[in-house]
Amino acid sequence: MCRNHARKALEAALQPKVVAPRRSPRPPKYGPDVIAALTVCWTVLGMPAGKRLAPMVNELVAVLRRFGELVIDEDTAALLVSTSAATIDRRLAAERAKHQLKGRCTTKPGSLLRSQIPVRTWDDARPGFVEIDLVSHDGGNPAGSHAFTLTVTDFATGWTENRSVPSKEAKCVLAALEGIANKMPFPILGVDSDNGSEFINVYLYLWCRKHRITFTRARLANKNDGCHVEQKNWAVVRIVVGYHRYDTAAELLLLNEICSCSPSCPTTSTRSRSY
Question: Average model confidence (pLDDT) for the chain?
Fold first, then answer.
């Protein structure tokens, strides 16, 4: 610190600071009635993010009021329609936290045969090259045995098949994959998986060699390599059965019944990024 700067700092330190009185807090614009109505709209549309809900609020409020599902006055409706996406996310943060029940990632790296299984480089133009993944139904508690759902998604067409298994043992997963392969409308030409031990094992490796199927894997710590099947994990499995725990034989049968009733062929393009 030079001499001139030290002198100025000491002079400023001796001068009293004038503190302006604190302003009274601004009254909230969106009261409890608006938040309650916003929660109803958010629940009706499946609890979307604010950026997806905001463009739909105007039309949705009119429809709900017309059919008597939302009873609010004109002032509340005007405030509800003018709510921005950021405000929606802030005001619904507490409600979103109540419904956020997600389990831990149960993928454990499998080192067996990893060097013999190449990272995916095949083309996705032809039907038959699929991504596979396993969805855990542990309800947030991975202890003990519980059900898993195998998701198989075709890269080119988006065709998706699901099978629920009692555990993530390699033999159970392979049996479910064989059942799906027999039901697919086209033969499986390639299988791409993550690096979990339920896929990177000798059973699946030999099965692919026997049926002349190209077996590849994703890169380590690159979850978006399986974005197509990850998107179907959410759209086909999680939206339907949620994040609850299923660990009984009866629940496993119901999961497979749900899988058999779910539409396999998508109605929209699946070539979109996973969110």
Answer: 85
